[in-house]
Amino acid sequence: MFCKSTRRSVFAGCALAALGLATSAAQAQPAWPSKPVKIVVPYGPGGAVDLVTRKMAQKLTEQTGQSFFIENKAGATGTIGAAQVAQSPADGYTLMANDTTFSLLPHIFKKLPFDPAVDLLPVGAFVFAPMALAVNAQSPFITLTDLLAEAKRKPNQVTYGTGGPGTTPHFASEALGIAAGVNFMHIPFKGAGEATQAVLSSTIDFQIASTTGLMGNVKGVKLRLLAVSGDKRLSALPAVPTFTEAGTQWPGIVNWTGLWAPKGTPPEILARLQKEIATAMASSDMKTFAEGMGAEPRQVGADVFARMLRDSTDNWGKVTANAAFEKQ
After folding, report:
1. Percent of the chain, pLDDT > 70?
2. Contact, 243 vs 251, CB < 8 A?
3. CATH of the domain at 162
4. Last residue of a domain, which of 209, 228, 247?
5. d(CA 313, CA 319)
6. Is position 112 within any domain?
7. Overall domain count for the chain
8. Per-residue pLDDT for 150 more than 70?
9. What b/e sequence results for 188-204 when a residue is b if at least 16 CB atoms lie within 10 Å of its CB, and e otherwise?
10. Residue 8: inside a domain, yes or no?
């Protein structure tokens, strides 16, 4: 009896000690974020994703007291940077920023170094921006009708630039061409920012891109917008018609920026990040930033974001089929 009681006491004491150690370990675990957080932008600097993410990183830094910094990792339609994040530790200290282009990846590549639907967790999307067709402010194309008429007269000679094959601007431009019955010539660059510079230098004729990446040069009277996507004009540029108003059968698309985390990232970290994104988007300066770029200053959480990605992937499948795009 004595031995049994002693044995029970020893076991109970060990169990309590183990519980105490586990509790102490849990309490010792620092709250996220306790060190700088890297956000990988899988494109070059200067494009819409880069600009919006830098603004969001600034807000997250202010709100959490920890540095959120950008690392540009361009290449292969954003898959190099995305693969890097997918293979990173799932501890909340490496994230990826991207836009609607991410939902195009299954239609662009025969094989990817990661599973877009599994290896990266959608955290939230924010800053919903229409896409616009921009030309140099000195371009002879005053209206979209002018540009399309030239493309009909000279097939494959009117040029447009993008951040690379398979990006959202690439397929958006091809979708416009299909709707208008014309063929443009695609000139790919390493990033949307480089494509914008090519328009500014008159190296190419036009660019379709998110308004967030174009408005600075539009306000500086260096670029002129011929049309914007959506069913209404921008309040910031009421003289610019929608694609439909400009006479096409293509309404365009709305681009958004979002954040992803590696698979396995703790739910509490994802929840905190979503909360901080929502707080940032509710701030007056973030609203001013978005509206100044012709974008809608709103955000959606993980569930809605995941549904948006699925729907976008399905819709892009129809465009790539019509464009006869051959997977890489």
Report:
1. 89
2. yes
3. 3.40.190.10
4. 228
5. 10
6. yes
7. 2
8. yes
9. bbebbbbbbbbbbeeeb
10. no
- Residue 174 or residue 320, greater confidence: 174
- CB count in 10 Å sphere of residue 224: 19
Question: Is the model's pLDDT at 22 over the cut of 60?
Answer: no
Residues 123 and 154 grouped into a single domain: no
Does 130 sit behind a cis peptide bond, omega within 30 degrees of 0 on the bond before it?
no
Q: DSSP per residue over 28-53, as a string?
A: HSPPSPSS-EEEEESS-TTSHHHHHH
Angle of the 267-282 helix axis to the 284-292 helix axis, nearest 10: 70
Instruction: Name the token pair of 16.
Output: 């309590």
CB 157 within 8 A of CB 184: no
- Decide: pTM greater than 0.90: no
Single-letter amino acid, residue 198: A
Q: How far is CA 220 from the centre of its chain?
A: 25
Task: Report the SS3 class of residue 6.
Answer: helix
User: Domain range spanning residue 301?
Assistant: 37-128+255-322
How far apart, in whole angstroms, are the C-alpha atoms of residue 166 and residue 327?
9
Q: Measured between alpha carbons, how far is residue 171 from residues 31, 313, 319 in Å?
A: 42, 12, 7
What does 41-90 look like in DSSP terms, one character per residue?
A: ESS-TTSHHHHHHHHHHHHHHHHHSS-EEEEE---GGGHHHHHHHHTS-S
Instruction: Provide the CB-side half-sphere exposure for 201 (13 A, CA).
Output: 8
The mean predicted confidence, pLDDT, of the chain is 90
